[in-house]
Each structure stands twice: as C-alpha cells, then as structure tokens.
C-alpha cells in the first residue's frame, strides 16, 4: 500500500526514479513536470492561488487566512482532490513530497525568526496586573482541568495516548504569541484594549512555556538516552546557546545598527550577516536536541526590535514569508490530514477530543474569571477569552514535531488539524460579532467646543504624522492659545499625538513620550518625535497653555482606535488631523492614501469634534526649526464662513476661542439666502441665530472682530464671495456640513472630490480657487449634534447686536 504524506516522514523506504532538476521542454517531447524545479514551483503557485480564492470566499464568514490555508491543504490532499489518481500523479507525486515539505519548513522557521525579532520583551515587564492574571489563568486553569480528568479516568485511557496528552497539555494550554499577534493584526484589533491585554498575556504565557520546556526537555532526553549525562549536557547547551544569542549575536547586531545612518535601513551585507548568524544558531539548537524553529525564535527574541533591524527584515522578508512560504506550510498541514482516519471509531480519538475540548473550556473559564475579577466588562472578558483560544501556525508546527518524533499517528495528527480548523472557524467569526471597539467610541458621552464653558480649559488633541505636519497645526494652536494675562484669557491643554506606522514590531504602542538621549533616538523614530515635541513646547511660552506629548505606533488600518481612545480618556473637545494631501515644493500635491483612511475612520468614530487641516503651502522644514521667535509677533487673519448647521456652529465656537489672542483678527462671513426665502429647517435657523448673536455679543467691545453678511442664491455666488475675499486671510475655518442639505449648495456635493471635507472645505482645498490660506474643516461630534439643547432664541427685533457689528477693515 502506498504511504500517506504523513507516513512519508517516518522510517519508510521509498525508491524513486532519479528526477532531474529541470526538463528538456515540451517541444523536445519531454514532460515539463518531470523536472523537480518546475513541479515544485507549480505546486507552490497552485497552493497560493487556491488560498487566495478560498480566503476571498470564507473571509465573508469571518475566517482568517491561516484557517483558509489549512482548508486548501485538505482540499488538495488525499482526502479529496488527491484521491483522484491523475490529479495526484500529475501535480503531487510522491517524489515531490520531501521537497515541498522542506520549502514549507523553511517558511516556518523564517516566520518564527521574524516574530521573535518583532517581539518587544519589555511587554512582559510592562504587563499590568490584568494581563498577568489573564496570562497565568489561561495556562493553569486548563492545565488543572486536564490533569484532573486524566487522573479521574485513570487506566481507561489507552497507554499509547499518554505522551500525546502530556504534549497537548503542555503546548496547547499555552497561548502562542505568534498566533495571537498574527490573528489580531488580520482582524485589525492590535491596538484595541482587548488586543493589548491579549498580546501581553500571550507573551507572558510563552515565557512561562519556554521556562517549562527548558526544565522538562533535559528530563525527556534523559529518559530516552542510555547515558544520564545527556540531560546535563542538554541543559548546559541550552544555557550556552542563550548566552551566545545575547552576548554575541545581539552585540554584533547592535554594532551594525550603530554604524547605520539614522532613519536608514540596514545595509545589505549587515542584513545577510544577521540571517547567517540566525541560521547558524538555529542549526546549533537542532544539534543540541531542540527544534530549529524554537532556536530561530529565541535568536529573534535576543535581537532588538523596531527600526532599523526590524523594519529591514520586515521589508525584505515578510512579504515572501507571509504570502508564499507560510501558505505552503499551513496547506501541508491540511495535505497530510486523512479525513477517513479522523472519522474512524477509535477509542483514542474520543479521549483526544475530550482533552482538546477541556483545554478550550478551561481557558475560557479561567480567562473570563481573571478578567472579571479585574473589573473588565463581561463582553470584553468573553472577547479576550476568544482571542486567547485562537489556534494556528504554532499548533500545526507542534503536530509536525510530534509526528516526526512518532508521538502522533495518522488519527491523532488529523484530529489535531481538524480541531484547529474547527476552533478557529468558530472563534474568529464570534469574536468579530462580539467585539467591535470602533463602535464603542461613537456611543460615549461626546464632547465639543460649543457646549464647553467659555472660561473653561479647552482640551485639544493634535495629531501629526511627520515633521511636515507640524508648522500648520502649530499656527492654528498659536492662534487659539491666549496670551498670559491677556484679554479674555482662557487656558488650553494640548495633547500631542505622533502617529507612526507599525513596522518591525508585533505589538502596537500608545504611551506618553519620553525624550531619548541616545543618538538616533529610540526605536520607533523617537528622534523625530523629539523634534516635533520641541516645536510644540514653544506654544507654552508666555501663555496659559500646556502640552502633553504621546506616541502611537500602530497599523494605519486601526490607527483611529488610538486616536479615539486618547481623545476619550483625556476628555478632549476637539482633535485636529492633517489632511492627506500636502503641497510639494515642485508644485504637485503629495497624496497619502493611508492617511485619508485614518481621517475617514476618525470622522466616523471620534468621541469629540474633529478638525481636518488643509495646508496649501509646502512645509519641508525640520520640526526643530519650525518655531522662530519673531514669527508669532505678526498678525494672523482668520475668517469663518458660516452657512448654518451643527458643524458651522462648532467652527464658530472654536474660532471664538481665538478672540483672546491679541495677534488674531477674526472675521465672521455669514452666507445667507435672500430675504423672503422659505426656511429649510426653522429649528436649525434659530440655533444658528442664537450662536451668532452670542458670539457678537461677547466680542462687542473687541475691535479685532468683524462680521459681514453676504447674500447668495447658489453655489456660484458662494464661489464668487470666496474669490473676492478668500486670499485676505491666513486661516479659513468652515464646517463640514455632512448630511446638511441647503439650496445654496444644491448639486455641488456631486462634484466634490473630497467628501470628507464637505462642500465648502472641498472648495478651499481645490487648486482652482488658488487659495493660499490654510483651511480647517470642522465636524461637530455626531452624538453631541443629536443632543443640541433647544434654548429659547432672542427675537430679531429685540436683538441688540447688529448683523454688521464691526464692518471696519483691519
């Protein structure tokens, strides 16, 4: 009988015809698939293409890529397509199995090395009580449950199943950090509150597992070896290899990093040297009785995470490993699964199923109990338990290891793979259903500037991606800040958030910024952050202003979670984001699509008002040279274009905060329809009149405030007003007016190129108007807009404020 792919790795002797590396070609009568190179290339291509197709279908059901890749292996394996003789002999003949298995194992060890490099071990030290309790409960609760049932069942368990139960108890009670980080990244939950706890808890779980392996591995070697000295040598070699990784490989790598120019990737020869050292250590771990993948992971942990090493390795290896090698590895796990063996009625399968279910149930119970004891919400505790129960590449690697050692037979291996697919198939869709962190921010008690007390502290969250975003945002904040002891001084608190794309790290970061004293800064580009913070610190000089810097390192897809979380935690009334288009020195606009996605998500989920700042002037100066002492001695001319609605009222309320700055000259331009036109929304009109009247009343004695009305009938008239007076100002503030219908702007939204800016914002952002003023587009928090207080408005005839209170020019 032909051996199965699983039995191929055992001591089975097979005789193959000597296959050449390549073929002579179809036109010379040779079969192209007779050569091993084209055959393996075709197999890899088939697996990758099938994985993409299956994932495109199953992702709608909430399935992650790892699950789909294992399913592809089952589909192509001997249980389904591989049972067809012509398909098996043509595409997956026995002579190619070892080559394909070798390629898949190479991908696995490279993946483990990358995960190790991207892992920041300081997360263990920073783990709070909650993460520590969850991590330990996730290990010992299922472990206790397994051993309790093991001794309760006693001799009824088949003797041959004891080693695999012990292996499952050790390996699967641990929550694999690579699996959790990979799954959270795919589900876009890396920087959510549950995701952060899960990462810290899983890393702690891995640390405990490594300690357990270091203790138990010598004992297993001693049991299998005839010489008891082998156990001592195994322990000693493990310690020596760990010391070599830390004091040789790490030291050499740090020397390479020190001679790398700041903010530059690792040089080619240094990159190759790091890989050679990692492969060498992996081979040594294998020689000393440890698995090569474990050795590569340990070496990766010893190396510094973040740039330049982490970013260089990710840029050059991660795409190849994740998109090519990893699908082959997981598909081979499914390829070696025989469904007929899994469905057989064997006693050992029933016991194995029991213990696998016990481990999953024990982890859910233990983690939820630990989370609830630490005052987590029930929904979040359940979501955390689901995340910690995700299975994937590490469990497939463990099954391969047991199969190579003879611990796992065809039935056991197949049951393990099916359980991985079944558990992941249930957990990930349920997790998507239960936990959606973005939605929670929209349900909070939203804040805005309009409803804040006039003399209260204004809290603003300023977000910057790079040094080029600093100057325009600092200009706006300088206008809002009051001078010390000045007119109508109102304090302002600025939370600065430097947004950095996650690269070369496994875990996202949101933390207060600490200045670095090292050359080149700390990991994550903190030297750039130092320059940005230094520029914002000048706002504090001579004013009632304070600046608190933070750093967010996260993927662009979920960066809005950090922004919204910080805004909610600090009770921010307004957050300011840079527009995704920047004016370049050569004239063409620089567009960053990822930044646009961040802005769109923040507009949808922010717990406060949002301002998007459009800068028409190129800003290529370093942040450290942004602030010139004499720069803010000049006057700043600000205009507010007011059409009406919650967003326009919020824009006017924010501009009113600038009245306290003696260098700011503010003009309110109210665009109104001709007298006699029917009101579209009388209630909104009354709110608009009251906000404008209050603003004019408060600034009645201020000669730096002017107000004028412009009667317009359509969008063409609005464009004419903007052309006439738009270039007289340094800053223009408008409302986004999302969802607001007005006869004045009817049909203009259909021609808008930037819907996130609204109709007026899109006009000012357009290059057709040749407007050089910076534009701040304001959106009032959606929840606050729905809770507008219905205050009694003052009748027009009794209004003491004229519509053109100050008509004099500056």
TrEMBL record:
Top-level taxon: Eukaryota
Localization per Swiss-Prot or TrEMBL: Membrane; Plastid, Chloroplast envelope
Limits of the Cation/H+ exchanger transmembrane domain: 47-432
GO molecular function annotations of the record: antiporter activity
Membrane topology note: Multi-pass membrane protein
GO annotation terms (biological process): potassium ion transport; proton transmembrane transport; regulation of pH
Major site of localization recorded for this protein: membrane
Domain Cation/H(+) antiporter C-terminal stretches: 637-781
Stretches with biased composition (Polar residues): 799-810
Keyword Transport recorded: yes
Domain Cation/H(+) antiporter central: 490-616
Annotated keywords: Ion transport, Membrane, Potassium, Potassium transport, Transmembrane, Transmembrane helix, Transport
InterPro entries: Cation/H_exchanger_TM (IPR006153), CHX17_2nd (IPR057291), CHX17_C (IPR057290), CPA2_transporter (IPR050794), Na+/solute_symporter_sf (IPR038770)
One of the record's GO cellular component terms: endomembrane system
Transmembrane portions of the chain: 36-58, 70-91, 97-119, 131-152, 164-185, 197-219, 231-257, 269-288, 294-313, 320-339, 351-374, 413-431
Region (Disordered): 787-810
Annotated family: Belongs to the monovalent cation:proton antiporter 2 (CPA2) transporter (TC 2.A.37) family. CHX (TC 2.A.37.4) subfamily.
Protein task: May function as sodium-coupled metabolite transporter across the chloroplast envelope.
Protein name: Cation/H+ exchanger domain-containing protein
Source species of the chain: Colocasia esculenta (Wild taro)
